[in-house]
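ok so i was messing around last nite and threw this chain in just to see what happens. nothing serious, just curious
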Amino acid sequence: MQIRRILTLLFTATALFSCSDAWDEHTSRNKDVSNQTIYTYLQADPQFSQFVALIDEVGYKEELTSSKQITVFALTNGAMEMVPSTFLADQSSKKDFVGHHITYGRNNLSNDANAGRIQMLSSKWLEVEQGLIDGLAVLSSSQALLNGFVNVMDEPVLPRPTIWEYVENMAPQNKHVDYLNSLTSLTFSPDLSTQIGVNDLGQPVYDSVFIFRNSFNDNIADLSSEDSTLTLFIVEDQVLDQEYQKFWRYYRVVNGTTARDTAETKMRITRDYVFNESYSPGNVPAMPVSANGIPVAFSEDAVVESFKASNGYVYVVSSAPVEVADRIRPIIVEGESPEAYYRLTTERADAQGYLRIREHASGGHDFVLDNHIAGSSQRLTDGLILPAGFLPSIQYRVYWRAINDFRTSYRYPSDNELRQRLGTSAVMTRDPVTGRVTRFAPPVFFTDFIPVTATEYSPNPEEDEVFVGTVNFGSMRNVYLQLVPEGESTHHMAVTVDYIKLVPVLN
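result:
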């Protein structure tokens, strides 16, 4: 223990001397560096008196006299006179305002190498380039000081609201904005709540804290995040109505239009108006691709209003159509990602899965489930479960790509014809903790038994695809496909698949 303490002291002393040496080396090599801290420099110049008073008031003096390397965009008294009173309304807003003019690191704006985004102590990010911050010009060249730089500003850099703050408080009132705001609710926060005891059932009792959360921000794109760079299209009412009429039939949760269907359709539409890039005016592509991967048509002529937020841009637009074929796309279900080997009546677990490397298979792999069970009285496993995802309410033409290069069974090869069929299975039960499916319902088949006759893959996948049938989903739901062997008479049968393709039949 004593040795550890001595080593700790030696390390601490070395670190302190290293910091001191680095400071001394910096000042010795840079003869133009003033032997003043940022704070003493600002305090000595009367043109910054109001800004310094605000620094003192909010408690940043210690930060500006420390050895940390800092850049301050200092406001002259004239600039302070231009600050709207709303930014100085209380202690919190004052501290945010001052912090919006301070950043860690040495940022000399006279050097193009410092162009980019910097995070201010207010937590917001600002664009900087030679002589400009957030588009505002620096009044005078950067002053190099003992612990950083001072850039003089003759107008304030006002904190901008986030895209979400714009939606909540500033956006024009319309159906799109109303829908986004309707997703906000008061939610119990276990992280902020304190457990104060337990009830008679042994369950925790909290001194509960509830906070407002928005499910769009939580699950689609966080428009409130200062660390994001986003673009949001807000569409006018006629655009939302047109897109709704175009897509509602594909997003039915039950047969027939209900309030739940309406909400699901609006979510599917509006999530494609968020983009993971900050597109400044004049730089929006003609077909930007949404965060969800969907191309959206854009025209500068359709812009009704634009807004620069702290984390990107907002455009209110009178047109932003999405093609049905771009949103309702073919689905590829890869065979190498099975949910389960599934059996309804088999007591023995003799089925064996094989993930195989094949040069021309999709992704370089396919999958074989060898279903042999010893003894003629035993049934085979009931097939291979493949997750297809959350699919729209639409009819699909279904194809599979599969080869039989293993003579029906890996372990008991034969000259029997390999035959398999396809259906859908519903989830019966899930593990309450992990959420993993523990039981599926028997499959509802939409194909007959179909032979797998190809013995090798061709370089062109589409040449190998076999049309196996159609399936119609009357409602949008999470779909599991079940690939089943013909096994009543040939007990050495397997199932095999490279992928299953579902091609939507669009109206």
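not much to say yet. Residues 1-31, 343-348, 374-380 have pLDDT under 50 and may be disordered.
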